[in-house]
Fold these 4 entries.
Entry 1:
Amino acid sequence: VKQAEDEIAAINMAIGAGFAGARAMTGTSGGGFSLMTEAIGSAGMTETPVVIVNSMRGGPSTGLPTKTEQADLFQALGASQGEYPKAILAPKDPVSVFYMIADAFNLAEKYQIPVIFLIDFLLSNGYYGIPVDEIDPSKIKIERGDIIESVNGEGYSRYKITENGVSPRVIPGTKGVYYVAATDEHDENGVLISDIYTDEKKRKMMMDKRMTKMKYIVKEFPLPVVEGDSDPDVTLLGWGSTYGVIREVRELLQNEGIKVNHVHVEYVYPVKNEIADILSKSRKVISIENNYSSQYTKLLRMETGFNVENKIVKYDGEPFTPLYLLEEVKKYL
C-alpha cells in the first residue's frame, strides 16, 4: 500500500504498477475520480490493466462529502476523452464486494483494460452483519490473462490484432523483448501513427481491435440477481448498494399479497441485452436509484432500447429507508 500525494499521482502509480506486472488498484470518491480520468484514458490506450474504486458521494464539486449518492455512473462511462473498452461493476453488499473485486482484477488483466468499481458512502461506511461462511477465499480464482514469459526470436507485436482484441503482453524486463507503449495512437508494434500524417486505415484497425474486447467482456458477466415471484405484476429494478432496502420492500409487498420481483444489476457496463429481456416479462417496472436523473435506466435505454417509465429517485444525501420506499412504490400500484 502506497499513500500518494494526490489523486493524479495515485492513478499514475497504479497504472505504472499494472504495466510492470502487479495487480494494481487505487481508490477515491467522485472529486478525486474527476482528477484521475485523463490517466484512466492512458490506460485505455496503452491497454494496461488497472482497477479504480470510486466510492460515490453527493456532488458536484465538494458537494456532500459525508453523504451517499449513486450519481457517478455517467462520469465512469465517460472517464477520459474518446472511446476505449472498460468495465463498470457495482456490488450490492459487502459480500459481493469481497468476490467482485477479484472479478474486477481478473477482467482488468484478461482484457488489459481499466475496470471501474462503483460503491458509495453507504456501502463504504455502513454496518453489516455477515455470516462467516459467506466469505470463502477458496472460491476466488485468479486469472491473469495471456502473458508471454519468453520470445524465441520470432519478433513481438505488443498490440497484435487478435480475434478477441486481446494481445499477448509481456512484463517489462522479459529477455529479448522491447516495445513502445505510448498514449498516442499506434500500430500493432507500438509505432506512433499520430504525428503529422495519421494513417486512417491503421487508426481504424486499432480502434476496432480495442473495442472488440467489449463483445467478449459482456459474455463473462453473470445475469442480474432476480428474486421474488416468477410471474410478477411489478418488478423493482435497482443497481449497486440499493439491494438491501429493495429486497426488504419486496418482501413487505409480498406479505400484502402483491406479486412482485426484484431485478438487481451489479455488472453494469457493458450492458447485457438479457436484462431487457428479463424486464420485458413484467407488467410494470419501477426503477429505484439514489440519483436525480435515474442514470441506470438511461444507460439501459441507450444500450438496449428498453424504456423504464416509472422511476423513484432520491438525491438528498440520505439512503432509502424501507418505509419511505414502500410508500413511493405504492404510488405506482
Entry 2:
Amino acid sequence: MSPRKEEVTLKDIAEAVGKSVAAVSRALNNHDDISEETREYIKQVAREMGYAPTNTLGLILPALSPRDSDPYYSELLAGIAGAAAEREFDLLVSSCAPGPAEQWAYLRLINSRRVDGAIVARPRWRDSRIELLFEKKFPFVVIGDTNLTGNFLAVSEEAAAGAELVVEHLANQGHERIALVNTPLDLFFSSEFLVGFQRAMRRANLPVVEDFLTESDFTQRDGYRAGQTLLSKAETPTAIVAADDVVALGVMAAAQDQGLEIGQDLAVTGYGDILLAEYAQPPLTTVHRATYALGQQACRMLIARLLGEKLAQEQVIIKPSLVIRQSSDLALWL
C-alpha cells in the first residue's frame, strides 16, 4: 500500500525514483548539479505522490525528573531551536528513557513522517539509535564523539582533549594524587574522557590509581555521593576531576561538608562551563564546551543536507578550552 499523501517524505520519493535522499532534495530545490531532466522527473513523481515537506526536525531527549534537569540539554536545545528558526524549520521535541522503549520512540518518529530529519545527542557505544537511523536511511546528525563510522553528519567536541587540559593544569599546580569522577561509561564521551585523563597523567609521570577512578550520573546528588566515597579513603586525592559541571558541584558540596576548603585543601574541576559554574562558591574551574554552538552547527548542517545544499564538511569538531577559576586555585581570589 502506498503512503497516504500527507505522509510522503523525501525517503519515499528517493525509493520511488531510485536516487539518494540528498539527490532528491537537491532536485526539488533546483540545484544545477542535477540535470534538468532528472529534476523534472523527480518533481513529477513528488507531485504524484503528494509530497509536502514538513520542514520539521525531531529530537528525543532522555526522560529526566524535574529535580534532575540537565543544563546541557537546555543550552543545546536553545542552539538547535535558534538555527532551525533561521531557516523557518520547526522542532519536534519528545522524551523517552534510554532502553527498549527508546527504539520504539525512534521508530515512531521515523514512521510517523512528521519530521524530515533527526538529531541524536550524547552518543553511546554502538549506539542503537544511530544504527537504526542508518538502517532506515533516515537523515540525521550526531552531536558528540562517537565510535561509529560511516557517511553521516556529526559535530563533536574532543572530550579527550578537554580531559587533558584539566589534568595538565592540575599537574602544573603540583597535584600528584588526582582522582576522576567520570560520567556513565556507556557514553562514548566518557570513554574518550577517560582516555584523555589517562594520557595526560602518563605524560605528567603521575600514577593512575584505580581506587581514584569512579563514575556518577549527571546529577549533583550522585556527584556528592562520588565525592564522599573518594574523600573517605585512607589516602585521599588532592584534586578531583569531574567530567561534568553538575557532578563537580556535588563533589564540591561533599568536600565542604567535610570541612575542606575548595581551591586550597582540595582542587575540583568540571566540564561544560554551565552558567552555575561561574557563580559557584568558589567559582568552578572547568572546560568550556561550546554547547550552544554544537546544537546550532548540527542543526544548520542537517537542514543544509535536507535542502540538498553542499556542505564544506560532514564531520565538524568544535575544540574545548580551559577556564581557570578559584576551585583549582584559591589564590585567584586575591
Entry 3:
Amino acid sequence: MITPSTHSIPASGNFCEVAAGVYWLRMPLPFALDHINLYILEADEGLYVVDTGVQSERSKAIWQQVLGALDKPVAGVIATHMHPDHCGLAGWLCQTYKVPLYMSALEYYGAIAYFSPNPGADTSVEADYFVKAGLSQTEAQSYVSDHSKYVDSVAPIPLAYRRLQAGKSLRIGNRQWQILTYGGHSPEHVCLFDAEANLLIGGDQILPYISPNIGVYSREPEAQPLTEYLLSLEQLKQLPPDTLVLPAHNQPYTGLHTRCDELAEHHQALLDRLLAHCKTPRSLVACLPVLYKRKLSGQMLFFALAEGLAHLNHLLKTGLVTRQCDEHGVYRYQTCENG
C-alpha cells in the first residue's frame, strides 16, 4: 500500500522539515509535469542542496528566498542525475555560493556531453533514429533541430565535480547517507539512503504515482534501460519496507516494496501488449497506440518513442521479438512464434 506522508505540500518559495535536518521544497517546471521536489540537508558546516530545478529567473528567486530563510551557508550541491529539472541550476548554485558539485561519473559526463555545444557534429544519426521508428524525414528533422529549449534550461555545468560512487557513503550532519546508483531512467542515477532512519532520497528512480520515463534515445539506440530499471526495482526491494521515500515528484510516501511491484507489473503489462500487437510486423510508431491512449505530438511523442523503443529493445534482447529493416529504412518488429 502506498501511504503519502502527512506533511503539507510546501507552497512555492516555502519549505517544510520532513525529517530532522531534512527540508522539502517545490519548484515549478515548464513541462506537463509541472513541479519538482527538491531537498536541503543541514549540517554544521552548512546546507547541501539535493537537485536544483531548471534554469530560470523564477527558480533562482525561489532558491534565494529559501536559502535566505534558512540563514546558513551553502556547503554543496548534489544532483541525483543529469536531467534539466535536476541539474539545471547546479552550475549557477555552485558558482554563486562557491561550493562543489556532487554527482555520479556517468551523470556528470553525460551532462557535459549533452549540454555543451558540439558544432559541426553529424546530426544524420539523430534523423535516422526517428526514421527507423517510422516517422517521415520531415518529422524526423523537426526533432533533430529542436534542442534549444532543452539545452537552455541548464546553466553551464561546473568544470569540476566530486564523484558519488555506489557502495560509498556521504556524511552530512548527523546522517550517514549510503550512496546507491541505478540505471534505467538515467545512466547512473544516485539515491541516498539513511539506514538508521529508514529514509531514502529517491529522485526519479521510484515515484509514487507515475512511472519515470524509461527511454532509448538517439545517442545510444541499442541501449537496454528497461532491463536495468527492472533490476533496480528488485534491488530497491532490499531496503526496509517501511522506508520513507522522498521522491522528486508527487509526495513523500511509504510503501516502497508495493511501489516496486506496481512498477514492475506496469512494465510487464506494456511488454505483453507489444507481444500481442506484433503478431504481424509493426514499426515503433505503429506500436504506440497500444501503449498510450492519448494523442501524442511534440515533446510527448518524443518521450513516447523513447519509452516504446526501450520496451521493444528489451523484447529483442530476451528473444521474444525479431527486428527487420524494410525498404524505407523503418524497423519492423515481429513476435517470435514461441513469444
Entry 4:
Amino acid sequence: MSTKPKVLLAMHRNLGEQIFRREDFEFFKTFVDVNEISSLPEKVDEAFIRDNIKGVDICISCWGTPPFTKEVLDNADRLKLIAHSAGSVKPIVTDYVWEKGVRVTSAAPAIAVAVAEMTLGLMIIALKRVFQFNELTHRGFWKLEEEIVKSRSLYNVTVGIVSASHVGRNVIRLLKNFQVEILLYDPYVSLEEAERLGVKLVSLEELMARSDVVSLHAPSIPETYHMINRENIKLLKPGAILINTARGSLIDESALIERLARGDIFVCLDVTDPEPPEINSPLRILPNVILTPHIAGGNSITDRWRQGRYIIEQIYKFITQGTMDYEVTKEMLPRIA
C-alpha cells in the first residue's frame, strides 16, 4: 500500500491535459498518489467528486469544478487541502469547507504573472503608439512626423496602479526595470507597505489626474463597481492611456465612451461589461480603443503550464512543510476576486 498522500484530480479532462505538462505531472507522481489525467471524465460533476473523495488528502480543482457542498464533504474523511489550479476560489468553496477545517490555495498568483506581463506589453506599445503606426503603415504612410512626436517610452512618465492585488504587485515589480514614477491607489495598503513597494500612495482622484498611464487591477466586488466613473474619467489628462486587464465592472463604460468620443485619450480593454461587448457597442468602432477578448491570464497553453507547476509546488510545500506561499482564508473572500 502506498504511503504517499492521496490526491484527487477533480477537473474536466481537457483542462487536466492543458494545465499539467507531462514532465511536471511525472514529477508530481514521485511524491503523491494521484489519479491519471486520462482517467478523468470529459466533464467533472459533483457525483464524480463525491464518489472518489473518500480517503483523499488533497483535491485539485479547476474552472468548471462544482462547489464542495456538504454532500461532497461528508464523504471527505481525510481531506486536508483544496488546491484550485485556476484563479478565484469563490465558485467552489462553501461554508462547509471552512467548517471542516480544509485549507485552500489557488493558482491566482501564477495567473497574475501572465496578466502583469500583458499589461506591461500594452503599456509599452500604447505609449509607442504601435497600434496607430500599424494602421497608418498598412494604409501606405511612413513615419509621419506629427505622429512620431506623440510617441513615448516607459521613461520619465507616471504610471498609476489601481490596487496592489497579485496582478498589481507584479506590474509594480516589472515597472522597477524602468525609470518611471509609480502611483498607487489601494485603501488596504499602508504608507509603510507602499514605501516597501517603492510606490507613492495617493487618492484615486490624484492618480487619475497625474498619471500618463492608468492600469486597473482591482477585484470585481460591490465596492469597486464603476469605481472608474464620469467624475474621475474627466480628470484624465489629454494623451493619457487607460488599461483594464482586471474586470469590466470596474468602469462605467457609458462615461468612458463619452470621454473616448473626444479623441484625446487611448484605452486598452481586455475586459468589458458585458463580455463580449454588444455588437453595436461604440467600443468596437472607436479608433482610440484596443479590444482583446479577456486573454491576459490563464488562456495560453504556457500560462496554464505555469498554473499547473505552481499548484504542484504549493502541494509539495504543504506536504513537506505544512505551509504554502498563498493560502486563501474565509476572511479574505469579501475583498478578493
